[in-house]
Structure formats: structure tokens, C-alpha cells
Amino acid sequence: MSDTDGKKTLGLRGGSRPGNVKQSFSHGRTKNVVVETKRKRVVVPKPGAGKAGGAKSAAGGDPSRRPAGISDAEMDRRLRAVQAAKAREVEEAAQRAAEEQERAADRERRRAEIEAKEREEKEREEALKAKAEEEKRQREEAEAAAKRAASAPEPGAASPVNRAPAKPAAATPRKTDQDRDQRPARNKGRDDDGRRSGKLTLNQALRGGEGGRHRSMAAMKRKQERARQKAMGGNVEREKIVRNVNLPEAIVVSELANRMAERVGAVVKSLMQMGMMVTQNQTIDADTAELIIEEFGHNVVRVSDADVEDVITKVEEDSKDLQPRPPVITVMGHVDHGKTSLLDAIRNAKVVSGEAGGITQHIGAYQVKTEDGQLLTFLDTPGHAAFTSMRSRGAQVTDIVVLVVAADDAVMPQTIEAINHAKAAGVPMIVAINKIDRPDANPDKVRTDLLQHEVIVEKMSGEVQDVEVSAINGTGLDELLEAISLQSELLELKANPDRAAQGAVIEAKLDIGRGPVATVLVETGTLRQGDIFVVGEQWGKVRAMENDKGERVKEAGPSVPVEVLGLNGTPEAGDVLNVTETEAQAREIAEYRANAAKDKRAAAGAATTLEQLMANAKADETVSELPILLKADVQGSAEAIVQAMEKIGNDEVRVRVLHSGVGAITETDVGLAEASNAPIMGFNVRANASARNTANQKGVEIRYYSVIYDLVDDVKAAASGLLSAEIREKFIGYAEIKEVFKVTGVGKVAGCLVTEGIARRSAGVRLLRDNVVIHEGTLKTLKRFKDEVAEVQSGQECGMAFENYDDVRPKDVIEIFEREEVTRTLT
Ligand code: GDP
């Protein structure tokens, strides 16, 4: 540092030439700043050297072209450096040419090797060999590079010329400025080792210099890893397969392992490590299973419960797999028109004589052979309920409907209903005009009557075949079978017998000794002994099968009815049977369905509420029946209600009064209602205690009414699916009258014991005598001892008097109820 004018300047010591700069600021302030200009050190050259330099280099020696401030000594030094560089340059050019050649060859070799290496990478040894070679070459390269580094810098101009344009990165660090060029020259060694090592130039990569080596270490590691994995073969493949594991709400450990394609032992071990001591047959929840799946590196696909049904694949049948199958025929018609007689007549006529009398074991369906050898399958369950319930359960098994109309009776309500059923199901019809033997038979009236219902029979130039038959004397049976056979030909019914069977339950029962048995009509595929299946909420394994003649069979193809043994429970008519691959699948589906059904029941409250019936009916979307059971106080009201109920039916719903009677609702009534999924309507009657308990247990809904209009209205609303918010009565208590007192001024007061719930002054009351309502009204007084009270609890005695009603007797029951608004939802 040097002091100039007493001011310190920043700069290099000695070589500075200070100058002053006056700076002006606002408000007239000024400031003198001493500025140092940097001056290069001047080296005085030695006379001799100066001459030599001057002679040799015009650029360097010519003082006029000499950069300002360069001393002779400096100049001399530079000149010498230049000379030396020039000398080396010649020598280096040759060396470079040789190197370049060598590098080209090297590159070629390297490329070949890389290619070869890639080919050979399959085997680890060769990969390692390649590595060894590469390392050797890299060592050579490193040596060469070190040599180059030791040599003097190349003049800048030479770089772009001598080096291929493909290696510009290598050329860029070289500066044409000599002054700057010296620095890299001094740092060459360090430069190559460190600073440039991070940057990989194409050149470096190709010639395998230090930079390239750095990178190849990582690449090499990866390659080695790859080679190692490949050498290990199958293991690599296994590790690579990441499976999507379908995970239901709960899964059996072995099934989980199966789905992940992992060893069960490994899964169990893994669970144990998580602190869960389970065996392979135990079920774990989805959350635990998810952890396991993740641990094994697979993807979890959470499936909803309903997805378990996906195993039952709806296979699109290839037309070439399809083979003709017999038609399935259902006989429908009005009651007493001869459905049963006709079915029996066909069976008896077509079954080999001798067997005829012995057919005690027919199974709800049978097959007959026509004259021309065509097989026909008849469902032996006449009536619409069977047809509808089958359809409502997803089993549309019927191909042809035979509509039986008695020639002496013509078209009746259930005939129309049958027509509607068939039309709704899109099933073709054949009209069997029965009882043609009757003297008062008028088949043409039947034909014209049918016109009104858009059934135009062939005799009326329509499309629907009509046959005159007599179930009693067998007239026209062959013609009827022919007509069926013709119709089935038109339908071209086909099924694939070579697939997992699907069928529908026609009927099922719990047989003492044989366990649950189901008559199944195979729809497609072939059901074989030993097949595992799910049917509705049940599952099983076909232990044995019997055909319609009671013979043991090993298999049943499309349209063949068989009785199946080996179920774990009794399914319901209309349930669909599907053969599954594994027992686990069958069980899982059955369990899922059972739970879903249970949830549905629970959600709907009671098992047989109006709402649920209607919800079912709605889901069905076809004509359905709303069964009810009616108990009334007197025969007159029962009859009036039944008549009103019959009028309610429309195209979609028909109200069917299963049973109507007079008197209290009994346990028998509840049993019947439960079996038929019907609610009980009590008109001015009540259920007795045991019936009430059973109803609660079984979830049978009991509704009490005191106005016919209300009852009819409710049923109507239910039938049309328009159950609106309603006022529902809630029974809050019952009291039994022990004694009756006459109190002057008040009238008769009933001395009661509250037997159930509470008695509330403000609530509505009914007087029941033998479970029949004899009065409904409000309380005038509710007394506990001498005091007027608002409520009396169960087990306590109280005095009650009715408003405007006096006829109270000991042993009468007082029902205390409140009204609450219930919003009903049907969706
Ligand atoms: P379903 O209610 O439709 O099953 O009718 P049924 O088969 O039970 O028959 C009702 C009544 O009609 C029975 O008494 C039969 O004997 C009678 N019946 C059925 N078919 C004929 C027939 O072709 N001719 C005569 N005369 N009576 C018949």
C-alpha cells in the first residue's frame, strides 16, 4: 500500500498511479476520492535476450506492438515461452496426430466393445471381463491424459482446427489470450483431475478420460447389478412382478397369499412380525391385509364387497360354442282353468307306461319328448307367483308360456294377468283352450275375448298359436306339444354346454335325512357332480343329482332340471346357481349376499314392512303382489276391507289378502304373515301379547287402524309406491282395568294398573276388550291417589276416566298412544 496525498488508495502495492476524482453530492457536498490506476510491472529486458526476441518474434519483439507497460524481462520471458511452445507445438502436432489416430482406433474398438458388451451382458462374467478391459483402457487413457497435461498448452488457434467440431466442449476451455492461457497451463493437472471432472463432455465420454471414468463407475454399478440380477434368473422376474391385489373387506390369509402369488408361510411370518398371530386359515381385515400387500411390494386394489360377485363372469358366448337346447315352458292361466290337470296330462301321456303310476318323486319340472323327438322342459309350478318370483330373483328361465283358458269360462282376471306377465317378460305365448270336452265349451269366445287383450291367435289371423285341448281326455295334447316345438324352433334356443354351469332354483326344501335339496334348472353350461357352486345366499358342492324321474345322474346340461344335494342351506325358488372355481369364492359370495340381505332387512327395519315390500316390488319393476293379512273386529268390516283391497290393484301391483278374519291378532297370524312376507292389518283389533312378541322377533309389521279409509289409503299408497309422510301411532303404554268406581260429578273411573310403558294424560287412549277396540278417545282424568298427574309409570296404579265415554269394565285394557310423523322413504 502507498500513501498518496495522505489518502489511502486501494490497489496493488508500488504499481499504482493515484489520481483524484471529485464527487459532488446534493446540498453542495463534495468528496475527493483518490483513484488508483493499476499499472503493470515493467521488467527491463536483458539486452541480449531482447535482440534475440526481437529477431525471432515481430509480434513480441516489436516495441511498437508490445503491450504497454511490459518490461523487457517480461517480454523476454514470454518470448521464450512462445518459442518453447512453438517448438513443442511441432513435436506435439505429431504426437497429437498419432494420439488422434490411436484415439480413433480406440473409439472404434470401444464402440465394438460396447456393442459386444451389450450383447454379452446376459452373462455376468463377460460383463466383468468387459469391465476389466475398460478399466485397463481407462488406465491407458489416464496415462495419456497425464502426458498431455504435462506438455505445454496448445496455442488457441490450433484447438478448433485440430480437434473435430464434434468435440467443442474440449476446445472451449482453451483461450486464445496468452495471458489467460498460462493459468490453465499451470493448473493443467489439477484442472483435469478435479475441476472438469464433474462435467462430462462428449469427448471425455468417448475417450474415456477422467470425467468418463467417474460416470462409468455408476453405470458400471448399474450394469453389474443388472447382470447379477439376470444371472440369478427367475428371482429377478419374480421381484419385478408387482401385482394388483384385489382386497375385499376381509380376506383369509391363504387367499391373500394366493392373490399376491407369495408363499403363505412368508405372509404368515410377516403378519407375526406385525404382532398378529394368525394361521393361514384365519381371516384378517382389509387394513391389515393392506399393510401386508404393501410390505410385499404389491398394489392394493380395494374392492367393494359387491365385487366378489365378479368371479361369476358373464361370459359372452361365442356363437360356435352354442348348441340347441330344449325350451322351458311355464303353464299359466286363471285358477281352475286346468293348469295342473294339463301339466299332469302331458306328463302322464308322455312318460313311459309303467312308470306313470310310480312318479311320486317328480321334482317341480319335467322333460317330455314329442313325436318328432324334441325334448321339452315343463316347469311344474303353475301360477303367476312362481313365474314372477323367479323373474324378480333374476331367473328368467321360461322360454314359452302356455296360457290355459277354459273354453267354458273364457278370459278371466288372472288370464289377463298371465298375458301381462308374459308380455312383460317378453316371452312368446301359446294359447291352450282347455276343457274343450265340455258341452258348454265355446273356444271362439275365448279367441275373441283374447283380442281385447291384444292377443290375436292364428285362428283370428294373428301370430299367436292356439290349440284346443282337453286335459281330462287328452284331446289335442300332441298338437299342443307340436305347437310348442314349432315355437321353440322359431326361438332358436341355444346354450353353451361346455362352461361353468348357471341355473335357477325352481324349488328348494329341507329334506329330513338328505338335508337341503334344490331343484335346479340348468340354464347354460353343464352342472356336474363335485361342482362347487353358490346359489343365492347359500353355497355347496354337488354331492349327488337326481333327474325328474328320480334317477341318479352325474351331469345335467342346459334346460335339464335336476335335484341337487350338497347345499349348506336351503335357497329360495328363483335363486340363481353359479358354479365357481373354488370353495372360497363360493363361500365369499354367499356370505356377502347373506350380509347384504341382512343389512337390507336391518335397514328397512322390519322384515315385512309395507315399505320393504314395495321397495322389492319396485326393484322388480314388473307386476308384483302386495300380500297383506287382515284381522278386523267384525265380519262386516273385514269383508268391506277385502273388497276395497281387491279394487286397489293396477298394472303393476295387486293387493292380495292372504287371509282375513275376525278377532285379535294371534301368533298363528304372525306366522302366516312371516312366511308370506306380509304385513298384518289390524282393524280395530290388537295383537295379543304372544303375537306381539313373535311379531317383534320376526320383524313382522302390525298396523292398527280404526278407520277403513285410513287402511285403504295406506295400502293404496304403498301399492302405488307413494308412501308420503304419515302420522304413525306409537304405543307408549298399556293399563289394565282392575276395578271400576262411580264418582259423582266425574262418572265412571277405572282403577288401573299400568302394565307396560307409561300412561300419559295428554296421550290418546283406546279401550280394548278381548283385544278388540271398543272406544278411542282422550282421557278426562289421570289420577295417582288423589292427585291429578301428567304421567304414571309402569307397575303403578292409577285412576283413569275417558272423555265422553263411560262403558269401562274390569279386565278391559287401556291402550295409550301418541302420534308421531314419520317420513317414509322408498328409495
Ligand atoms: P288349475 O287351478 O288351473 O290348476 O286347474 P286344475 O287343473 O286344478 O283344474 C280345475 C278343475 O278343472 C279340476 O276339477 C279339473 O278336473 C277340471 N278340468 C281341468 N281340465 C279339464 C278339461 O280339459 N276338461 C274338463 N271337463 N275338466 C277339466
Automatic annotation (TrEMBL):
PROSITE patterns: G_TR_2, IF2. Keywords: Cytoplasm, GTP-binding, Initiation factor, Nucleotide-binding, Protein biosynthesis. It holds the Pfam family IF2_assoc. Residues 324-494 form the Tr-type G domain. It comes from the Bacteria. One of its GO terms (molecular function) is GTP binding. The keyword Cytoplasm applies. GTP binds at residues 333-340, 380-384, 434-437. Belongs to the TRAFAC class translation factor GTPase superfamily. Classic translation factor GTPase family. IF-2 subfamily. This is Translation initiation factor IF-2. It comes from Sedimentitalea nanhaiensis.
